[in-house]
Amino acid sequence: MGHLGRRWDGPGRPNGSLGKAVGESRPPSRARSRRELLALLEREYRGWKFERVSNRSDREHSFSTWFVRGLARQGRTGCAVIGLSKDEPPAAADAVLAFGLIWLDWLRSRSERTTVPGLRIYLPREAVELNAHRATAINHRAVQLELYEWNGGSERPMRVDLATAGDVAVRLVPHRANEALIARHRELLRGLLGDVADRLTMMTDTTGKFLSVRVAGLEIARIEGDLSPKVYFGLEGSVRRRDESRREEFRAFVSRVLLQRNAASEETSGDFYRLQSEHWLESMLVQDITRIDPALSLELVYPQVPAFTRTDRGVIDILTATRDGRLAVVELKLEEQINLPFQALDYWLRVERLRQQGKFQDYGYFPGVALADAPPLLYLVVPAFRFHSTTKRLLRYLDPAITVVQIGINDPWRHGIKVLCDVIGVGNTEFSLNLRHQLHQSLGSGFGNGHGIEVRFGMDNRTKQSGVDIITASGQDDLMTIRRIV
User: Which of 53, 81, 241, 331 is the most buried (most CB within 10 A)?
Assistant: First the structure.
């Protein structure tokens, strides 16, 4: 979730899930791509040996046939290599960094006599900007990452300058609350539907051109215009204008949606129940974002926030903040997806860029709120058993400045969201969020907000001890616990 319309809207944006990407069909050009990359490596790295060069699919280890992968070795030092052909689909460009790190991680676990400190990625021109921007958020103490623009054949690869890759212009679509318009149109719907109208959610479109009418996140009608509003209803592909001849049809349609679009519905195979499930989950969290973390603010919640760059029209699922003003990005997924960490990272990078520039109030977000001078939190909300097996490994390669909170919820979330597991990760360290309230009661909510002091909560996965750590940092990776409350 998190894009306008299609899942592809520019370089590096897929049109669907990557959960099954490793089994894509093989076009004839892939054998040529493998030969071309090997020839390139032999030209560029004379005296090196090249091993395990392949683009065969391997579902067990999450290796995709989209990419040519290999190991370049010189003595006891190696470098992971992955190449992407310009003939591959856009989803491959979106996923190459994730699959490259998966390949690197696998090589490190198998190469007992060879150290593999680095990863080199060869990309066609169209895939460079997105992946270079993401590369700025990689922990370069964990991996020596190099990106090269290479469009195939005998062309000489050009190394991408990652030092300037983070300089990406970001803009938000201005927030238009327009409560007066919503109130007027609600009265219109009451006249058409009676008290049933109060069971519908109404929100203005980001363009300001119409008002969306929804049931549990599913858009069922639109109201266009203000002085002479027109009502259109139906699901995508079967929308019609409501007029006097369709008065009863409109009432019956809304009643049918309300009957089937709820947790107690017996029509769980119908479109009204199945469609836009992530929007359903989103609508529940918008009503009470504290269901996933009590530290988040009930009042500062913005769903479906368009955050654009030059090449991508992405939409943040939920933009919010903690009660003490720290920004938070919430990404929702209901299906297993390999590339979840990096799609969510895109939005984190945009929010952090806007935070550094102090632009949120300019766009109408968080009016009158003193936002904390700290990087945003990044929440990944997924049914507990649908985090991909590679998610945790990929998160370990992110910059330690990025705090990622994995929230595993119950599968029957429609009946009520329950957090089954929550893990907050900073670099290679993970803690649970469960004991946040103990800390606030013991030390006060303001403790740990500056002077190099950081607070982490719950269970330390390494020691299996439960409690709250108050940590002082001398450098990003050197941590020392100075107090523990059990």
Answer: 81
Instruction: Give the residue among 72, 95, 70, 93 at the shortest CA–CA distance from 18.
Output: 95
CA distance readout (Å), 148 to 11, 35, 69, 124, 160:
16, 18, 15, 8, 5
DSSP 3-state of 344: helix
When pLDDT is cut at 50, 70 and 90, the band that residue 173 belongs to is confident
Residue pair 436/294 in contact (Cβ under 8 Å)? The answer is yes
The maximal CA–CA distance of the chain, rounded, in angstroms, is: 81
Dihedral sign, CA of 64, 121, 169, 11?
negative
Encode pLDDT of 221-244 as tens digits. 999 988 889 999 999 999 999 999
Output the CA angle 108-110-112, nearest 5 degrees.
Answer: 85
Q: Are both 21-159 and 278-427 of the same fold?
A: yes
CATH of domain 278-427: 3.40.1350.10
101 secondary structure, DSSP code: H
Q: How many C-beta neighbours within 10 Å does residue 315 have?
A: 19
User: What is the Cβ-side half-sphere exposure of residue 406, based on CA atoms within 13 angstroms?
Assistant: 24
pTM over 0.70: yes
**Where are the domains positioned within the chain?**
21-159, 179-215+218-275, 278-427
* CA 214/CA 218 separation, integer angstroms: 5
Residues written for the chain: 486
> Which runs of consecutive H residues, i.e. helices, occur in 226-299?
247-260, 271-274, 277-287
Which two three-digit tokens encode residue 286?
Answer: 């918008």
Reported confidence tier of residue 478, pLDDT bands at 50, 70, 90: very low
Looking at residue 102, what is its pLDDT?
96
SS3 47: coil
Percent of the chain with pLDDT over 90: 62
- 2.60.120, 3.40.1350, 3.10.20, 3.30.70: CATH of 21-159: 3.40.1350
